[in-house]
C-alpha cells in the first residue's frame, strides 16, 4: 500500500486550529476535540480503510465515527485520489482527566490485505488535558497582604477576582478559612458574597472563561474599634474540590474615633451610639453644616480627636484632663481590656467636654 495520510485537528468552540503532535485545547465539559484522518491510495482501484491501534486505544469520553469513503478533487503530484476515506475522532474530557495526556493512534490499510500496522500509513497524536490552576486576577483583586482600613458602620469591601490559567472555562471559588490566631474565618457580621453576574456556584465546573468575581463585605459594629482582623481565603478548583489551592490573606483594621452614617442618621442618633452629645460631634466635624442629616455615602465622620499616651499618663489622669468619665474613656476604646492597660504610645479616642449644658447651646 502506497498511502498518503492527512490530518485535520479542530477544537470545537475555539477559533484556532492546530496541526502539532500534542494538543492542549481540551477542557473538561466544554470543548470537544475533533481529529479527522484522511488516508488515500495512489492506486485508484484500492479501497482504503482506517483502524484504531488497540494499544494505547481510546481514552474514556472519546469515539470514532465513520464518515467515508468520499470523492476528492485531483491534486498535482498525487495521481488520481479517487478512493479517500475519513474517520472522525471526538474526545470530550470529563472530571478527573485534567492534567493527563493520552496518545491515540490510527492506521490505514487496504481492504484486500492483512491488517498490519507496520506496513500501513499510521498516524498518532498526543492529547493533553490541562490541569486546573486557579489563581487570583491581580487586575481586579485587592492586593495580597493588604491592610484595609475600616470604621464603625463603614462598608468594607475586599475584592477577590479569580481566573484559571490552566484551562479556559475552568471554574474556581474562594473559601474563607480560619487563619492562625483567629477563632473564626470572617469577622462577626462579615460575609463572602458573589458579585451578581460574575460568580458561579461550586457545583458548576465549566463556563468560567472570563473568570469569576467575589467580595468580602463587612460593616463593623460598635465595640470592634481598635481591633485588627486577619482574613484568609483559599482558592478551590471545582474540578478538584478536595485539593487545597493557593491562599491569600488580608488585614482589616477598624479605626477608632471614626464612623459612617446609616440612612436617616443625625448627630443626635450618632451621639447616642457613642455615649456623647450632638454638639460634641458637630464640633468635631466642622465641614458638615446640617447636624440633623448625615449622608450615608461612605463618608467618615469624626467622633473626637485621638490622644497619644505620654510617659507618666494614667487613664484616670487622661479622663480628668479632658472632662470625661473613666467609663466613657473605656467605652470609646474597646481594644483596652481595662483602664490599667493604658500604656505609653497608645492612641486613645477621646471626647473632650466642650460645654456645661449641650442642650442649651
Features:
mainly beta; four-stranded antiparallel β-sheet; 4 helices; 19 strands; 8% helix; 34% strand; rod-shaped
Helix content: under 10%
Taking all Cα atoms into account, the compactness measure Rg is: 35 Å
Number of strands: 19
Q: What class would the helix/strand composition place it in?
A: mainly beta
Assess the beta-strand content as a share of residues.
25-35%
Task: Describe this entry's structure for a reader.
This protein is mainly beta and 361 residues long. Helix content is 8%, strand content 34%. Strands 10, 12, 15, 16 and 17 form a five-stranded mixed beta sheet that branches. Strands 1-3-6-5 form a four-stranded antiparallel beta sheet, with no helix packed on it. It has a four-stranded mixed beta sheet with strand order 2-8-7-4, with no helix packed on it. Helix 1 crosses helix 2. The chain is rod-shaped and about 110 Å long. It starts with a strand and ends in a 12-residue tail after the last strand. The relative contact order is 0.11. Residues 1-21 and 69-83 have low confidence and may be disordered.
Amino acid at each position: 500500500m502506497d498511502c498518503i495520510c492527512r490530518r485535520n485537528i479542530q477544537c470545537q468552540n475555539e477559533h484556532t486550529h492546530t496541526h502539532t503532535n500534542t494538543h492542549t485545547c481540551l477542557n473538561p465539559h466544554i470543548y470537544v476535540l475533533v481529529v479527522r484522518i484522511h488516508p488515500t491510495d495512489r492506486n485508484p482501484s484500492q479501497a482504503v480503510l482506517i483502524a484504531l491501534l488497540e494499544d494505547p486505544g481510546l481514552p474514556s469520553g472519546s469515539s470514532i465515527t465513520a464518515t467515508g469513503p468520499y470523492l476528492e478533487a485531483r491534486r498535482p503530484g498525487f495521481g488520481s485520489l479517487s478512493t479517500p476515506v475519513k474517520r472522525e475522532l471526538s474526545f470530550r474530557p470529563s472530571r478527573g482527566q485534567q492534567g493527563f495526556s493520552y496518545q491515540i493512534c490510527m492506521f490505514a490499510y487496504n481492504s484486500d490485505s492483512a491488517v498490519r500496522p507496520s506496513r500501513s500509513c499510521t498516524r498518532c497524536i498526543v492529547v493533553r488535558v490541562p490541569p486546573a490552576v486557579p489563581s487570583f486576577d491581580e487586575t481586579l483583586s485587592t492586593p495580597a497582604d493588604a491592610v484595609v482600613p475600616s470604621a464603625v458602620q463603614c462598608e468594607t469591601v475586599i475584592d477577590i477576582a479569580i481566573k484559571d490559567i490552566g484551562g479556559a472555562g475552568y471554574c474556581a471559588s474562594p473559601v474563607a478559612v480560619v487563619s492562625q490566631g483567629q477563632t473564626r474565618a470572617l469577622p462577626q457580621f462579615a460575609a463572602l458574597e458573589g458579585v451578581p453576574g460574575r460568580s458561579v456556584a461550586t457545583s458548576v465546573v465549566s463556563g468560567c472563561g472570563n473568570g469569576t468575581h467575589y467580595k468580602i463585605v463587612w460593616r463593623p459594629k460598635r465595640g470592634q474599634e481598635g481591633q485588627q482582623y486577619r482574613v484568609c481565603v483559599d482558592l478551590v478548583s471545582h474540578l478538584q474540590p478536595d485539593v487545597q489551592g493557593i491562599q491569600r490573606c488580608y488585614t482589616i483594621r477598624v479605626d477608632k474615633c471614626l464612623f459612617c452614617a446609616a440612612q436617616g442618621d443625625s448627630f443626635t442618633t450618632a451621639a447616642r451610639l457613642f455615649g456623647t452629645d450632638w454638639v460634641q460631634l458637630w464640633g468635631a466635624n466642622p465641614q458638615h453644616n446640617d447636624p440633623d442629616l448625615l449622608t450615608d455615602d461612605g463618608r467618615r465622620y469624626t467622633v473626637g480627636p485621638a490622644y497619644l499616651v505620654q510617659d507618666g499618663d494614667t487613664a484616670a489622669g487622661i479622663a480628668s484632663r479632658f472632662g470625661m468619665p473613666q467609663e466613657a474613656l473605656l467605652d470609646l476604646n474597646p481594644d483596652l481590656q481595662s483602664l490599667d492597660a493604658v500604656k505609653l504610645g497608645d492612641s486613645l479616642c477621646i471626647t473632650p467636654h466642650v460645654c456645661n449644658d449641650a442642650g442649651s447651646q
